[in-house]
Amino acid sequence: MPSDEIRAALIRRLCISSAIADEDIKEIEALPISVRQYPAETAVVRDGERATDCCLIADGFCARSKTIASGKRQILSLDIPGEIPDLMSLFLHVMDHDLSTLTPATLGFISHEALLKLHRRRPVLAEMFWRDTLIDAAMFREWIVNVGQRPAPARLAHVMVELRERLRIIGRVDEGSFEMPLTQEQIGEALGITAVHANRVIRQLREEGIVELHRGRVTVIDERRFLELADFDDRYLYQSPTL
Amino acid sequence: MPSDEIRAALIRRLCISSAIADEDIKEIEALPISVRQYPAETAVVRDGERATDCCLIADGFCARSKTIASGKRQILSLDIPGEIPDLMSLFLHVMDHDLSTLTPATLGFISHEALLKLHRRRPVLAEMFWRDTLIDAAMFREWIVNVGQRPAPARLAHVMVELRERLRIIGRVDEGSFEMPLTQEQIGEALGITAVHANRVIRQLREEGIVELHRGRVTVIDERRFLELADFDDRYLYQSPTL
DNA sequence: CCCCGGTTCCAACAAAAGTTAAGGACGCCG
DNA sequence: CGGCGTCCTTAACTTTTGTTGGAACCGGGG
Asked: What is the model's pTM?
């Protein structure tokens, strides 16, 4: 994948939540990005490491997670193409969590230095990136609610809808089906339940004819009951800056 | 409380995680702040509202929370003097959660306009506030892990230690005891458990001689076992910008 | 001073989730 | 094509947590 396409993915996404001037787009296009391929299930940055670059996902799925002393792991977010999951490392240099690939992925690395220079030159872009980290935080808040208050089947549905809405923006949902390349173990880690229980929940949703999950692909069967179960409100996801 | 003292609380906290130049401090001191008193258990900003000011806590405790369709409420953070819990509203104007007081509180309101102007004048301060929102996000990540992976007693201990460490910075811990002005109902909402279970957990920690919780005040009995249970790593809380 | 409302506390029972264990499906590699 | 490993699947049993309901406590207001 050429480096241009990678920038394009980023710009496309940024344009959705902010209006960007042409000259600013050019600035982004001029950002030096070094591209690297990663296999599935590989750490990109680890908890405790000091980051000097931010990682733009050009293709593939990633996840952020933290592991506690007991060895249990909690997935904090699923990250998709066009996103910069570790933008926070720009100012919080030492990582407080892991970033790793779920699938084989194409990642573009942008140095902190280049980003900071860009911010100085174009404060508007700095604000846009700041906004981006704030939406990230909003997603964490919703994730807390999901794990803390919803019964397990609703948790799964909620994560699915959120992922679908985000994939929809980048044109990766077709005919009510979309990718969610997690093992049941990982689904459990995302929902704060065990893999066995995750399996129970998946089966239940299938038996009730709500949603099908097979080989990392989600197919919604009964849209109405699916949305009802998920209790999803997209307000936190995309908010126009003009609001 | 005079408006000077309020600014002082903010500056003191900001100085801890960043080095600020004298002229920048002066800029902050020049910020127009309008002070208001709030009774306990009162909404400051509500989910869905459009914010035009940010709220600096001068005195008292606040909490952020979200309520889902079923009526269940999840507390997302506990907020203490010196903090600006809704700084995110600067760019995410419509609130995605509630901010309310736990105790009677003195709050200082700073208009978005004034903050944005300050940022234009002093980009370094903008970065400092950005950093602040990033630490906020780091705390959300840890909160997700707490609710998602730790057994209930550890969850309680973890929230207690986090609060204590933050209170310590502002000089509000004396002799191993500190304020945590939550009802058991609210503790449940913070930990993602019911009030009844919260009560069980509190009793258990008391019976095991680990920590005492009485009338909104926490007294640690066995520091070693307390820390061990909490599984606390302060890395996410304060990170020097020079790191 | 006493009553009232909100906490705190507790017990018994129900439901949800964790644990352990084991068989089956599937893809990959030799 | 057969074997191996990973994931999925399921069942039986245990533990944790939720639910319901009620008693004791406590502080503030009449």
From this structure: 0.97
